[in-house]
Amino acid sequence: MSGGVNMVPETYSFCPRCAARVEIGRVQLGANLTCRACGHQFAISREPRTRAGVGQGRGEGDRRNALEKKPVEREQWAHEATQLAPPPGLFFSDVFGFPLRLENLPHTLALGSAAVVLIGAVRLAVWCLGADNENVDEFIRVLLWNGLLLSITLGMFSLLICGYLASAYGLTVLHDTSHGAEAVEVWPCVLLLEDVGAAAYVASGLILAALPGVLASELWQWLGVPKPWGIAVALPAFFPLFLLSMLESQSPLGPFSSRVWQSVLYGWRVWAIFYAVSFAVLAVAAAVFIALTRHGGWTVGLVASGLLAAVIWIVYFRLLGRLAWFCSGRWAKEHSRQTIE
Predict the structure, then answer these.
(1) Mean of the pLDDT values across residues 230-247?
(2) CB distance 302 to 120 below 8 Å
(3) Residue 144 and residue 124: Cα distance in Å, rounded?
């Protein structure tokens, strides 16, 4: 994972002076771009674009290049940096309130609204199926089947919208956080379907992460654990490994990156803290979700559950971005730069 999470779309670059995100558009390689934040002009090249630390000056470029001369040296640096003890606030500072920031709140609400429609469609379908099993007259039965068809159609449409928003927003938060950014500079434009390819990464990661839980069905039966619970545990356990591996290899078909999987050995402490925090967040969210759907009433439970799902999703990718930031060695570089300055 020495190269970090390198999923940087070709639609934008980063200012080498202030690290602001600058839209590229249809400019030629070698053309100059002007940063709207600081006014700095820089040229577009074929070199990999990574987010530098904010406030980086000319002298800092020499110190950064000293750490990035050769791939072997970069990998050794990442291994050594991953073995460091993670800072106490890595997974707590500006994480849980991140989705509720004023600049992030519209996107959280957009994702939450799509989740509300999706959850509502699923609940309507379940209710229609349950009511159809009761003794009802033919007219009511026809209404129930029409309601079922409507809920299936609405559910499929909302699933596509929710999946796109969740993938695009999640990977945007992951990418910018993994490069040390405290805020998302530019969110994907929904109307232009930007970052629609992110859905392939998230969908592949979820499917692959669920496979161990499905294949271990006999183990769950032997332990007396319901199969759905076993799959629910396997998903958050393997999803970070598969997703970061695919982003490292820049392909949704490359779920095994040696750098990512080796980082578990070198940085077992930061991975352990990440799993502890993320599992605790998901467990609390699941308990609140169940309580809302059972006791909050149809309207309150539906709206609150959708918004809660959106908040937890963005928080989870914020945590995952902090993990990638530390394991890639970028945190150590930023820390060493601040120490030198």
Answers:
(1) 88
(2) yes
(3) 10
Task: Please give the Cα distance from 304 to 298 (Å, whole number).
Answer: 10
Q: What are the angstrom distances between the C-alpha of 222 and each of 214, 229, 323?
A: 14, 14, 34
CA 27 to chain centre: 29
Query: Structure tokens of 331?
Result: 């945190």
Q: Which amino acid, one-letter code, is at 331?
A: W
- Residue in the block written with tokens 């699941």: 286
Which range, of 71-85, 167-181, 289-303, 319-333, averages the lowest pLDDT? 71-85
Helix, strand, or coil (residue 211) = helix
215 pLDDT band, cuts 50/70/90, is confident
How many helical (H) and strand (E) elements, i.e. helices and strands, does the chain have?
Answer: 11, 4
Taking CA 339 as the corner, what is the angle to CA 334 and CA 341, rounded to the nearest 5 degrees?
A: 95
Question: Considering Cα of 85, then 91, then 93, then 94, what sign does the dihedral take?
Answer: positive
AA identity, residue 293? T
Q: Tell me what pLDDT residue 8 has.
A: 35
**Can you give the pTM of this predicted structure?**
0.75
Nearest Cα residue to 174 out of 296, 43, 335, 5:
5
Gyration radius from the chain CA atoms: 23
